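Suppose you are handed only these lines of text.
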Amino acid sequence: MAARLIPGDGIGREVIPAGRRILEALPSSFKLNFSFVNLEAGFGTFQDTGVALPDKTVETLKKECDGALFGAVSSPTKNIPKGYSSPIVALRKRLDLYANVRPVKTVAGAHSPVDLVIVRENTEDLYVKQEETFMGPKGKTARAIKEITEYASLNIARMAGDIALRRQRVRDAGGDSIHKQPLVTITHKSNVLSQTDGLFRESARTALSEEKYQSINVEEQIVDSMFYKLYLKPSHYDVVVAPNLYGDLLSDAAAALVGSLGLVPSANVGKDFAIGEPCHGSAPDIEGKGIANPIATIRSVGLMLEFMGEEKAAAKIYSAVDANLEEGKLLSPDLGGNAKTDEVVEDIIKRL
Ligand code: NAD
Ligand code: MN
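From them, the structure of the protein bound to manganese (II) ion can be written out as follows.
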């Protein structure tokens, strides 16, 4: 099998090698013999070559590739050089990875249990990045387009429905969970944005009323009070479906409920291809210190395997990570420990 690795910038270069070590350490009984190819993308690549996402990276990803892992890229927030734009946003669009799936889960016995998945639309909304700056009646004005399509909204809601059903199957088979019934929460702001978010809401309702999803409870929550309720009673939520921007914000917020962004994985999923990617960014504040938490990436390896159909190997990885966290002896500094990235990886490998 072939895996493509795109470390990117900052701690991406520290956590992606950790993900690779986990794949290499999986017991041979899984018969997953990966070969690895490193690909370039990111701000560093832009500074070296003038392009943030080389065509070669996109082409190699499209060719005979079973799975891929993406680290993180640094996108400057000021003095942005002309021609630079985030390669991960572009990559999601160019490969039509229309869903970003972000599970957030506490380990057994947590004081305030959380077991939810945020299913974020990954190709449109304000992230179409059609911005302009012009002189208006009030002077300098900037404007952005928020684009929502029925097509993408139906697709993302169906993905949320399928994930809710899959989670229920795992529970029926005896998997541990705080939920008994599948629930999908549609989040939006259609009280203000009646056309864009209105279309998202309407389409999500339509998709989830299809025969296949009859066993799922469907509810709606306006996005500002969604944040409030998420903090007040996180255990209520099972699967949350959201347009791109709200999904981005909600998943970082949900990461705080489990203690660290360094724990939360994601997968960018298309029709027949998935790229695992930790939810966090390039974390320049801890770059180069060897203390980045590798768990978000290791769990992203699990998600990548799940979407490749290798559910048993994924389960093995999740339980090794949970065992490391439950024991709590080798934790990285973001979780209050003093273990280095490598020590956490080695502890998890021992448990595979
Ligand atoms: P960040 O996620 O990089 O960091 C936020 C905070 O969480 C920091 O204090 C950081 O130290 C901590 N943190 C994140 N991951 C951690 C880990 N694995 N272990 C321990 N601590 C961890 O977000 P930011 O600081 O807002 O952004 C930094 C850069 O990352 C920016 O250039 C931004 O554009 C980029 N970014 C990239 C992506 C991506 O590539 N998908 C996503 C978000 C941010
Ligand atoms: Mn984000």
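What can we learn from it? The domain at 111-257 is CATH 3.40.718.10 (Isopropylmalate Dehydrogenase). The mean pLDDT is 95.
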